[in-house]
Amino acid sequence: MTDLSLLTLPFMPFFIAALAVMFIASSSVRSALMLAVPIASGFLLLQEQSGVALTMPFMGYELVPFRTDKLSFLFGYLFCIASFIAILFSLHVKDRVQHTAGLFYAGSAVGAVFAGDLLSLFFFWEVMTVSSVFLIWARQTDGAFRCGMRYLIIQVASGLLLLAGALMILHSTGSLAFNEIGLESQAGYVILLAFGIKAAFPLLHNWVIDSYPQSTVTGAVFLCCFTTKVAVYALARGYAGADILIYIGAVMVIFPIFYAVIENDLRRVLSYSMISKVGFMVCGIGIGTELAINGAVATAFNHVIYKSLLFMSMGSVLHMTGRIRASDLGGLYKSMPLTTILCVIGAASISAVPLFGGFVSKGMILTAALDQKLDFVWLCLLFASAGTFYYAGIKICYFTFFGQDSGLRAADPPKHMLLAMGLAAAMCVFIGLYPALLFGLLPFEVDYIVYDTTHVLAQLQLLAFVGLGFVWLKISKLGPPDLRSVNLDVDWIYRKFLPESIRCALGLLIADYGRLKRFFCDLFHQYIMGGLIRHHGPHGILARAWPIGSMVLWVAVLLFFYLIFYYF
Amino acid sequence: MKPERPYFLDNKGNVRFLIYIFHALCFVLFAADFVLHRHSYHPLEEIPAFYALFGFLAFSVIILGAAMLRKLVMRPEDYYEAPEEISND
């Protein structure tokens, strides 16, 4: 391939459009352009064949910014579909920064799954980080700003770890190619940590819970689709069959369930749910058999569809009512019937009800765990399946749309939002009815029967009896109430414990800590800020509008001295 | 203002009817385990109606576990910073 073909790579339409939408004032032209982007990108993907690689020299190394195989194609198509849905959902937004950020974010996710070397992956990884933080800041509240900063620090840390790991690999093997990494070297662990942060491994997971519920209504839909799924893709390519992932995944599926049950903010419930579902995928990747990898990847595909549907329906509720706490909602089915139906479809899919998308992929990972005699892991996954139905199927749907009538009467959201949700719901049903279509995209040959008596009966029994438990709990009026609260999680360490302990330690060490702090604050304000304002402020010497002529004069003077030095 | 028309679930009778139907469904699924052949890959699965029992047990564990977790980690809403009113934009 020549250099020109860089322009025909599938992420390019996203990047070009992201720059273009900043300058398009007409909302209809902007909408048309944005909707055309994922279609164009998908079309470019269809033109490519498996096994193609584009190489590019860079500082003496050979980079592979584009490389195709079945695994990247699946994620590529998935991200095109997801970004189309998310863009359609966000058409009403007038803030062009959000559109630009969303397009850069989606485009770099598409780029990341086709990156053939670790440096290209790092590049897309960082573009994803920087663009996605604007979807949080766009909320324009103090809380969102601080949350965005925390998000940025954690994501940049992940990027730096990836870069460090990549350089270690380059040093030891002389190649940057992104293939199987494994855990034989230290670099393997460093990169696993980088991927682990993005995949929300236990103890590294808190950024998901912190940031997704803080982002804008439409931003959350973008956010839920890409970052964690790129991490799942990267794990599947680099660490398939790494035993440690099985156990990390097993913890990941279990602990968020308890948090999801007691959480009041419904978008936060969905964020916990996302960690649990990514745990399924991590587990599948760790098991590493063909069936397990297929299951993990198929789960990622379905997850993007149904999780975006759930985030869209909760986003619609927030958009129309201004509320998102379970304790403030209830009875919305009366005035939001279409949103209710679409949300129920999403909940049925995530709960793996037969005939919906989630059922197709969930059983593959469970069967793979049983095949490998991982009994305990199988029980963990089964437990998580029951939990999913409770917090997603029952909690999200029941407390928002049914349950105690809150008296809120908000209408269904605008048509484009309903259309986006309808599209995602249709895909949930379609994949449930025709799993062969998804199976055709999976990296390995599929030898798994979805609809047989065993699978269907087992799953229906599991779901029905979780439901029965809930009904009895409701009848006996013993159910845990939804309370307005904050639940401590790992972020307590860096939001409360560390700042408080540093303050205490300094207070103990230095008797006059208060005075010292004031002294430094004064120093900072008087000398540093004062100096900056003096030179760069409205009347500062460096902020003055200098005529071009004076600049030319100074350039001429510099050149003159340069010449003198050059000759003597 | 015109009083709102009563909705389907506002009627206690309808809710009771749905609960009966749901119990019947649970019974049918429970009984189906004794009629239909469910293939077992694991010794635990051979327990009659294993999945039904597991579902109910898992639900109980989740509710009890969540209640205990709440005692441990629940704090007032302004624990980190004062909650902002959620804007709908």
Question: Which key features would you list for this structure?
Answer:
heterodimer; A: 568 residues; mainly alpha; two-stranded antiparallel sheet; 3 strands; 71% helix; globular; B: 89 residues; 2 helices; flat
Beta-strand level of the residues of chain A, as a percent range?
Answer: under 5%
Uncertain ranges of chain A: none
Structural class of chain A: mainly alpha
**Spatial separation of the terminal alpha carbons of chain A:** 48 Å
The chain-level mean pLDDT of chain B equals: 83
Number of strands of chain B: 1
**Biggest sheet, spatial arrangement of strands of chain A:** 1-2
Main beta sheet of chain B: none
Number of strands of chain A: 3
Global morphology of chain A: globular
Inertia-based shape of chain B: flat
For the largest interface, the chains and their residue counts are: A-B, 63 and 52 residues
Q: State the low-pLDDT regions of chain B, or none.
A: none
Structure write-up:
The complex is a heterodimer of chains A (568) and B (89). With 568 residues, chain A is an all-alpha fold. Chain A contains 21 helices and three strands. Chain A has a two-stranded antiparallel ribbon. In chain A, strand 1 (53-58) and strand 2 (61-67) form a beta hairpin. In chain A, helix 6 packs antiparallel against helix 7 (186-198) and helix 15 packs across helix 18. Chain B has 89 residues and is mainly alpha-helical. Helices cover 54% and strands 2% of the residues of chain B. Chain B is flat. The two termini of chain B are 30 Å apart. The relative contact order of chain B is 0.06.
Secondary structure elements and their pairing?
The complex is a heterodimer of chains A (568) and B (89).
Chain A: H1 12-21, H2 27-47, E1 53-58, E2 61-67, H3 70-89, H4 96-114, H5 118-137, H6 142-173, H7 186-198, H8 206-211, H9 217-238, H10 243-262, H11 266-287, H12 290-321, H13 337-350, H14 357-371, H15 375-401, H16 415-433, H17 435-441, H18 453-475, E3 486-487, H19 491-509, H20 513-536, H21 548-567
Antiparallel strand pairs in A: 1-2
Helix pairs in contact in A: 1-2, 1-4, 2-3, 3-4, 3-9, 3-12, 3-16, 4-5, 4-9, 5-6, 5-9, 6-7, 7-9, 9-11, 9-12, 10-11, 10-15, 11-12, 11-14, 11-15, 12-13, 12-14, 12-16, 13-15, 13-16, 14-15, 14-16, 15-18, 16-17
Chain B: H1 12-35, H2 50-73, E1 74-75
